[in-house]
Structures are given as structure tokens and as C-alpha cells.
């Protein structure tokens, strides 16, 4: 009897606003002024055993040591399959502080050239990583250590509009 090999579906992260590797629309950046909403995100096929998610948006191209973090959100319940456009801190999960030293999304705003924005969604084997509200990217990454079941990534690019 021949065995049937069934491949597990890949854990994926996507956005209706842009495709992986494409430009993030200016609506979701500092060029949109103070509105600067987060893009909607959707994910599927999280690894078995997922109890929560953590989301980090990071720009490694930023001209500072270690890059710049634009969004930190963690303890997102496992039943969650996406975040709406213009996500508001406090509506789901726990908001950490971005490089702007505040909770919530802060859109791309590169000083020059094209930057790459990595939306990293980690599936975790715990419902809570035990980090407090306002935790930084480094705090969250340390708290997640040993609990990551899988990671899905979506990369968008952005270059400032002519000023």
C-alpha cells in the first residue's frame, strides 16, 4: 500500500493594499499626513498549536543602528485571522511601543531612497508572552523566544513622494 504525502499549507500573511515586494500605497505612510492608517492584513494556515500571534513591522534600511520599528502588537488571540485597515490599539491584542515611542502603527517615512518594510507575524505556542503594554520590539522578541511555531512575512517598499 502506498502512503499519501499531504503537504501542510504554508502560513501566509497578505494585505489587500499591496502585494509582497510591491510598493505600499502612500495612503498608509507619513505622506498621507496625520491620518496615516495601517493597511488591512490577513493571514491563514497558522501552524497547529498556535495560541496567539505577535506582529512586528520593521524597516531594516533606516539610517540607524538596527533599523526602525513601525509597529509592535502581541498577544493577538489565535482565532484572529486579520486586522482591519486603520487598526486601533486596544481593539485586539496588546500594543507595544514603536520607534516613535508610542503604541500603534506609524507608517513608512524614509528620509531618502527606497526602504523595505517587513511585516513579520509570528505564531506562538502560548496565549500570552507576558510582556507589558508598551513593550519594545526587543522586549517582545525576547519574550517570544522559544515559543515561535512559525513566521509569515509580507514585505512592502516605500520611497517618499516629491516634496
Describe the structure.
- The chain has a 5-stranded antiparallel sheet with strand order 6-4-3-7-8, covered by helices on one side.
- It has a single domain, classed as PEBP-like (Phosphatidylethanolamine-binding Protein), CATH 3.90.280.
- Helices cover 5% and strands 31% of the residues.
- With 163 residues, the protein is mainly beta.
- The chain is globular and about 45 Å long.
The end-to-end span amounts to: 68 Å
The CATH architecture would be: Alpha-Beta Complex
Compute the number of helices.
Answer: 1
Tally the structural domains: 1
Classified by CATH, the class is: Alpha Beta
Given the C-alpha coordinates, what overall shape results?
Answer: globular
Helix-strand sequence: EEEEEEEHE
Query: CATH superfamily assignment?
Result: PEBP-like
- Based on CA atoms alone, the radius of gyration comes out at 16 Å
A few lines on this structure:
Helices cover about 5% and strands about 30% of the residues. It is mostly beta strands and about 160 residues long.
